[in-house]
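Handoff note, outgoing to incoming analyst
You'll be picking up this chain. Sequence as last confirmed:
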Amino acid sequence: MTRTTIILLLAAAAFLALPAASAQQQGSLVLTSAPPTNALAADSTTLVPVKLEFTFDATGDLQTAGIPVSYAVTKAPNGTAVSVSPASTVIPTTVGADALGLSRTVEKTFQVVINVNKDAPADVFDTIEVTAITHPGTLGNAFMGRTVIPIHIENAQAPCAQATVTGPPPTTVPAPSASHASTSAPAAPVRVQSAAPASSFPVAPVAAVGGFGIVGAAVGLLARRRG
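Most recent structure output, in case you need it:
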C-alpha cells in the first residue's frame, strides 16, 4: 500500500465521520414547566410536572443501552426543600435509525417536589431552577437543559390573635322578688292614739266638782242651825 493510498483512506474515514459528529452537535434538550396556580402555604408539599424533550441524531442511536439523563435542583428559595422524582432517566435509542441518518425527539416527564418549611419567610416571590444533563459517553456530546419555576410563598406564620380589652361589666341590682319580700322581717306596727270624744270628761275634773258640792251643802246646813 502506497503512501498516497493511506492518505486517501484516512481522508475518506474523516469525511464519513464528519456528518455524524456535526449532526450530534445540532441536538437539543428542552425542559418545559408551569408555575403552581396557587401560593404555597407553610408546612405544605406541592408537585410541579416538567416535560423533557430531547432531540438527537443517528449518532445517539449508536448507544444501544440508551442515553442516560440526570436531573438536579440548581436553585431553591430559603425555607424550602426541593427534589426531583425520579432523579434520572434513560432515553431509549433505535439502532435502525443510524442507517437512515435521521434525527428524532423523545419526550419524558418528571416531577419537582417542593416542600415549604414551617419557618419559611412570609410573602416571598422567588424561583426554583432545575437542570437536566445527558451522559452519552464517548459516542456523542452531552446536552443540558434548564427550566425556571416561579413560586409565591404566602404568610408562613398565622397572625397572632389580639386580645380585646373591654371595660368592667355593668353592675345590675336585681329587683326584690316576691319570695324575698315575704321572707323579710315585717315592719314595726305604727300605733295611733285616737283623741277622746267631746262628750267625755276627764276623771280629775269630775271629782273636783263633786267636792265643791259637798262643801256647799255643809255650809248651808250650818246656816240653818244658827238661824
